[in-house]
């Protein structure tokens, strides 16, 4: 008997009208021969129909297996840790001159993040590329994988202290960032001012200090700006562009900052998936007592809680939140000001 049960050595046993045997029945039961031409024709049609159904069921099972494999792979690729392999950090070649560059690259590559140093359209510029695996299943249920890439919406501009001093003294600090924002269009700026606190510490000390004098060796060749001029320029720029401006002093903190931004960008798909799965839950289903802020009956802890809430807003770094908190020490004070302006 062949795979389709079309053996001429026997015939089918009597069956109910319209009964079509399954593929398993055709295989397990021997088919008896028949001398009737009409019987052979009916048996052949039934076997063919049964075989087609078996093939269809097998195709569906294989399709389901392929779909489950694709879904499993997609979930795996966006898991924390795994997702780092699908991000590349692009450094402008000017970043290679900074003291934190090699340390940053080592930290990123240890986490399986790809890096490259290339000429970019903006000097001292960092952006991120995300790679996404695209899976398709063909008619034979074979999984085919392709890769797409896209540039992430956040970009980082890093200015060293001497460049900041020259731009503020020339009153072009804000305009320079405005022009960059126009070039980058819909990108969100992250501005890092590197070693600015040391600049003011140098001028505050009588002789600049031994270590500071080595770090700021050409400081006397540059114009001097006051801390007030600096703060005014920073606040003006943040208000005008709605960007985040952060002061970082050393290579360790700078490398860690780049790594943290990279990690946050890499984990965005995972967090979006998690939010999608929990957004319809009751609020208290996600209640978590870890890292909470205690507020006693005297109100101690309210300021920390207010800072925490401010940091939840987009582009609100801790320095920005602290600046807001100094002027508006409570949510009600901030709302009063907003209502007044409206």
Structure overview:
It is a single chain. With 342 residues, this protein is an alpha/beta fold. The chain folds into three domains: 1-77; 81-287, Rossmann fold; 288-342, Crossover junction endonuclease EME1, DNA-binding domain (DNA polymerase, domain 1, Orthogonal Bundle). It is 49% helix and 16% strand. It is built from 13 helices and six strands. It has a six-stranded mixed beta sheet. Helix 3 (101-110) links the parallel strand 1 (87-92) and strand 2 (114-118). Helix 3 (101-110) runs parallel beside helix 9 and helix 11 crosses helix 12. The longest helix is centred in the first third of the chain and has 41 residues, at 37-77. The radius of gyration is 34 Å and the shape is elongated. Residues 1-35 and 281-286 have low confidence and may be disordered.
